[in-house]
Recover the amino acids of this structure.
């Protein structure tokens, strides 16, 4: 069953169900608490909306300057929680608080410095994060207003603030809501997830100064504990290879349309089939070389902001827009790279867009 109002969670439900089936008593309890809680939540569709309770603590925004506030949920599920660190204040000494603060800033800086975008809504939206959410909560999510981070169970997942690309991924959902508003189901939902991975991984690459060749192209590489046989939650370079573990199972992501997964689970496979456009972006970034955000990232951003992008866009429809914007912004060389990248994952751009 698909639900376009489903919360934008980083850990998909099928992983939590694997833990329920195979984990220890502690692991099953953490997964059950997380999965049960997720089912009670609904995403607030549309452009990001600032929570009134948090807004009173924020200063007036100036373009180019992030406005961050980080709260401690104190192990409860009431948001936003107790204010711990506001914009300009020194480090708190709590790793989760300070990681969230830094990651929110790195994400804002990427969108501003690289793309000229003033926060998620391009209007200076204040970035809010709550840490220590729930008990052993095994997820991070964007709820339409703010970021929320669990601490993990310490055996499978570590605290979710450790992973910059996870923070960037979830915040990008806010950008997508402000632009295309891609319906969170089936191919448009998988595009939603893929675009969040694309910008999340570029935010990490931007901070590290990594070129496309130097980057690891992993999503959630800092989340898994050493007990788990895996390098992350997703691999954009090689979807389907991020983990293969007796507890979590094998990474189910396909890397080609010939392996597209038809399912009612996970809102029509939004976290699964996103591997196909993820690999297309990786291939284009590799072909163009240099920093991924300079050409491939700019093309993907232009396509996302194109007003003709339908809320229920297919992979093919989005791919045609990337080709169009490669031609507009760059040259035939970049257009050929885009066309080849999509062709290599089974999306043929020689035909007219649907």
């Amino acid at each position: 069953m698909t639900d376009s109002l489903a919360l934008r969670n980083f850990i998909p439900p099928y992983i939590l169900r694997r833990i329920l089936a195979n984990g220890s008593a502690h692991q099953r309890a953490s997964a059950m608490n997380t999965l049960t809680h997720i089912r009670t939540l609904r995403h607030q569709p549309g452009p990001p909306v600032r929570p009134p309770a948090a807004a009173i603590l924020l200063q007036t925004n100036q373009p180019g300057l992030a406005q961050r506030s980080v709260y401690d949920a104190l192990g409860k599920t009431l948001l936003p929680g107790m204010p711990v660190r506001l914009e300009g204040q020194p480090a708190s000494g709590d790793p989760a608080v300070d990681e969230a603060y830094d990651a929110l800033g790195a994400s804002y800086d990427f969108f501003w410095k690289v793309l000229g975008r003033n926060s998620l809504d391009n209007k200076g939206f204040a970035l809010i994060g709550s840490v220590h959410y729930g008990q052993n909560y095994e997820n991070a999510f964007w709820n339409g207003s703010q970021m929320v981070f669990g601490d993990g169970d310490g055996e499978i997942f570590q605290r979710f603030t450790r992973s910059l690309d996870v923070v960037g991924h979830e915040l990008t959902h806010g950008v997508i809501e402000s632009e295309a508003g891609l319906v969170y189901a089936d191919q448009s939902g998988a595009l939603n997830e893929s675009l969040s991975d694309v910008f999340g991984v570029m935010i990490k690459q931007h901070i590290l100064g990594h070129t496309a060749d130097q980057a690891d192209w992993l999503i959630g590489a800092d989340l898994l504990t050493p007990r788990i046989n895996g390098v992350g939650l997703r691999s954009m370079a090689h979807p389907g290879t991020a983990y293969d573990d007796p507890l979590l199972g094998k990474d189910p992501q396909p890397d080609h349309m010939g392996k597209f997964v038809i399912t009612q689970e996970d809102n029509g496979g939004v976290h699964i089939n996103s591997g196909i456009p993820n690999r297309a972006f990786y291939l284009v970034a590799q072909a163009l070389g240099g920093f991924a955000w300079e050409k491939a990232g700019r093309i993907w951003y232009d396509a996302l902001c194109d007003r003709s992008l339908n809320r229920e866009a297919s992979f093919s429809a989005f791919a045609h827009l990337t080709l169009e914007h490669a031609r507009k912004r760059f040259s035939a060389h970049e257009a050929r790279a885009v066309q080849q990248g999509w062709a290599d994952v089974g999306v043929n751009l020689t035909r007219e867009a649907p």
Strands lie at 8-9, 68-72, 82-86, 127-131, 140-142, 147-149, 218-219, 234-235, 244-245, 249-250.
